[in-house]
Fold this sequence. Notes:
- The complex is a heterodimer of chains A (about 300) and B (about 425).
- Helix content of chain A is about 30%, strand content about 30%.
- Chain A has about 300 residues and is of the alpha/beta class.
- Chain A folds into two domains: about 5-220, P-loop containing nucleotide triphosphate hydrolases (Rossmann fold); about 225-290, ACT domain (Alpha-Beta Plaits, 2-Layer Sandwich), CATH 3.30.70.260.
- In chain A, the strands form three sheets. A six-stranded mixed β-sheet of chain A has the order 5-6-7-3-8-9, with helices on both faces.
- Chain A starts with a strand and ends in an 8-residue tail after the last helix.
- Chain B is mainly α and about 425 residues long.
- Chain B has two domains: about 50-165; about 195-425, no CATH class.
- In chain B, a hairpin with a 2-residue loop joins β3 (about 120-125) and β4 (about 130-135).
- The radius of gyration of chain B is 31 Å and the shape is elongated.
- In chain B, about 35% of the residues are buried.
- The chains are: A alpha/beta (about 300), B mainly alpha (about 425).
- The interface of A and B includes residues 51, 78, 87 and 146 of A.
Amino acid sequence: MTAALVLEGVTKRYGAFTAVNDLSFRAEQGKILGFLGPNGAGKTSTLRMALGLVAPTDGHINVLGETDAARVRHRIGFLPEERGLYRRMTPVAAIAFLARLKGVSADAALRRARDLLAAHGLSAAMNKPIRSLSKGMAQKVQLLSTLAHDPDLVILDEPFSGLDPVNQQSLETLIRGLAERGATVVFSTHVMQHAERLCDHVVLLARGQKVFDGTVKAAQATTPRHLLLEGVFAPGALADLPGLGEMTETPLDGGAVRAVAELRAGAQVQSILRAAFDRNLDISRFELREPTLHDAFIGLTHDGEVHA
Amino acid sequence: MKRLLMIAWREYLAYVRTRGFWFSLLMLPVGISMIVVAPMITARSTPTPTVAIVDLTDRRLETPIAAALSPIGSNAAPMARIVPPPGGPYAGRADATARLRAFLEGPRTLPDGRRLDAAAILWSSGGGVTIDFWSRDVGNASIQGAINDAVKTAVRNEQLRAQGVDQAKLNAIDAFNPNTRDFSPKAEHSEVKLKDRLPGIAGGAIGYLLWMVVLTGAGMLLNSVMEEKNSRILEILLTSASVPEIMGGKILGVAAVTTTILTFWATIGAVILTARSPELTADVAAFLVANGRWAYFGVYFIGGYLMFATFYVTLGAFCETPRETQTLQGPLMILMSIPLMFMTLAFTHPDATILKVLSWVPLFTPFVMAARAGSQPPLWEIIGTCVMMFSVTALELWVAVPAFRSGALASGRFELRTFVRSLGRR
Lengths: 308, 426
């Protein structure tokens, strides 16, 4: 598969501070890559290097087949983390202006701006100054301005921040649409749920270092599954059930207990349930909890320490 | 280049569509009109003061004083209107003073309803004359001065007449005024006319105009870049165009704005000047055309604008708030006021040594050299100062590209250390 973005051994230092350390990953063409990490992990620095805004201290970057992103800037769409547009311009003029900078002809840029705004419910606002729009509308306009030139690679830095749930949902739909038409989408976020729903591939970063690179499922597999059991049983009664690891028990009303136990690798859930019944344990709730990407991330960056 | 022009055009439209642009455009003509009209309005709105003359000297000094306060020219207003002293006759100086003070201090008015604004009590002292001048308005000394001069002349003439000099001779002496003619080997026909002084005046004026336009344009750029950095548009632009294209586009856009304003001002100025004095307009035009001076001013305007615009654009990339730009502009304006202090010399001595020295300081070169245009600086000085100015500008552009990028992507408030370090990135 062809990669739209390849980073190999990329390091970025600002004086004595290392923002990104020996980072390598690939964003495959037509796929959605989530670039995850807490604040200060080095996500923005990495994206800026990918865009050619800052040069890496070490390593190689290849964007759409070029080592210099400037040569393919007309094929890249970028949404920065902090947003703003020309407040006195109208949405249609702002989108058309940015599209023209990306090489779209004047007529096509205007047409495309109008079509995009209309398709996203902003027809009524297209000729009003951006300063008169609501925050959500202005953010949508800015997002559309990154897409007006039909980019092959779309880089979105924290695109969900500041959006209400409805707009988050519509952004997710938009991102899926981009990938469906063959564009590669790389977006950074520290909210794992978005990545979990959208991404084919995630790269987890902590303190400038890659801690995971693979599919969402593979990331989740790095973290043990958990079993939740509720019922009336003596504390410690579950300890010798097969396949259970570390466990926490919480007393509930009416003498009941809630136990959350880690499942050991290879443990069979059915066997555990059978063993519990064999021992006549009064189990009223038995629930397998698959790890989330959030759990995986916490596990991989336990207390902020990197466990690659 | 296409992107540079697109950025320039957007920048130009962004300014032209603001109220501030139209305000700037109209400010100078309105200002000049006010300079012409304001004194007339002031003169019309200020009533002619009334003055009472109490002559206790028996020298009949009212007549020369009245002549001194009368209007000069048929349309001019008199300096003051002489009114009969109210409350007289007076028993003496003290009595006159006491009675007149009552009119000057209180609400008491003259018989015709007007108020008394001033009074001069003239009395003999030691063979001479003393004038006690009382006035409501202590700040206006012109009436007092005119009365003083009139009395001085009258007493002198009286004494000369006493010495046997006849009145006709005295009148002839008073009317004497030397006919001074001004010559210079530099004047076109030896005798100095306004046309010969024009180069110094026009050069100095253009020097000031360049200073104002260049620094206004640079200030606009500083704020424009700061606003774009603050709203993160700069980061988007950096992914759409190269740094030279962004900087060049912004510099060109604002240059077009300032050129529009200058052209408008020049057109208005030319129309007004032609209406009042077509000869002077022709002389100014001849001055600008002679010896390729339009190109001379053009080169220093372009050099000066590029030098300051590049610096201010780069500086703007490090600022995030208007307060930061204002804080930076303060010390820069103090530095840039140095040539202004010396440029006044250019009107009278465009070839003064201090101006020649300042011409070689690249920051001051464009303005001082423009102001010196009237003295026709030698070619080697023009070439030398241009080389210095454009070398500094080229060096600035060279270091500004990485500094601009660095500033545009940095966050946090302006720090001089960070700015200086970024300049050394090359």
